[in-house]
Amino acid sequence: MTAPTVFADALEEVQFRVPYSSAASYHEYYGTGAPPWRLGRGCGWQTFEVARLVEERCGARPTHLYAGGHSPATYLTQDGITVLDPYLPHVEPLRLARADAVSGAVRAGIDAYPIRSRPDGTPAPSRLGGTWWVADGVLLLEYARFSPRRSAMVTHRAFTFHLATELPAFPVPDGFARRLLLEPMQNNLSIRALHRGERTIGELVLPFTGRPREQLVDPAFLIAKDNQGAVSRAGTPGFHRVLDLIADAVDGTPEEVTAYVMDAAAIYHRVVPPDQKWPDYSAEDE
What we know:
Helices cover 27% and strands 29% of the residues. It contains 6 helices and 13 strands. The chain has a 5-stranded antiparallel beta sheet, covered by helices on one side. The protein has a 4-stranded antiparallel beta sheet with strand order 2-3-4-5. Strands 6-7-8-9 form a 4-stranded antiparallel beta sheet, with no helix packed on it. It is globular and about 55 Å long. The relative contact order is 0.14.
C-alpha cells in the first residue's frame, strides 16, 4: 500500500476502534491499569496508536508536535505536511502541500465528524482546517462544528504548533502523564464514541463544575450529547438513547460505560487536590 492509503486506513481504524476518553488515563495511571482499547484513550494515546499503525505498515515515522497538552502525528517532507489527529476526528488525512503556498502560507481543510444536519436536512460536516506558515515553521489546526443552535460553524478547538517543538519521548513517561492529568484544564470526564454503522457520535460526560466538590462523584450529574450536540440529562429518554449508541459502538453495555466514567471520577476525586478549581463546563446545546 502507498503511504497515503496507509495514513487513511490507520486514521479510520483508530477513529472507530479507539474512542476518545478522558477517563481512560485515570484508570491507567492512578487506578488498576489501562482499560480495554474499545473503551478508549486520551487524545495523545489515540495519536500514538495511529502513529504505531502507520509505522508498522509502511515505516513512516511521525514528528509529534506538542502544544497546549495536545500532540498530533505529523509527517514532514520536502513537499509538505500530513496530519493525523483522531482527537479532532477528521474523515481523511489533512494534507498541506508546500506547492499550494500563497504569500508564504499553506491553507487546507478536510471534513470531520460529527456530520450534523441543517434545518433543511442537508448535511453539515465538521471541519478540520490547517494553516502552515512555511518560513516561520508554525502550524495552526482549527476544528469547527456546525452549531444547530446558532445555525453557523463554530470553532471548537484550536492549537498552534511550532515545528521545532516536539514531545521528547512517546508514549510519554508515566511521571509526565500523571502531572498532566492533575492540571485544572481538565474540567470533566467523558467518553466520545463514533458509531461505525451509523457514522454518528455520542458522548457521555461528567462535568466537574456547577456543584459542591463533595458531589463530584454523583451519576445524577452525568449528561449525554448526541450527534447534533443536543444535551440530555441523566435519566431522560434522550440520555438513554445516546448511552445505548455509545455502548453499541464499544461492544459494551450502558451499565459498563457508566461505571467506567464514574469509577474514573472516584479515582480523580481521590488524587486531585481538594481545593482544585476548574474552568466552567458548558452543558448547553451546541
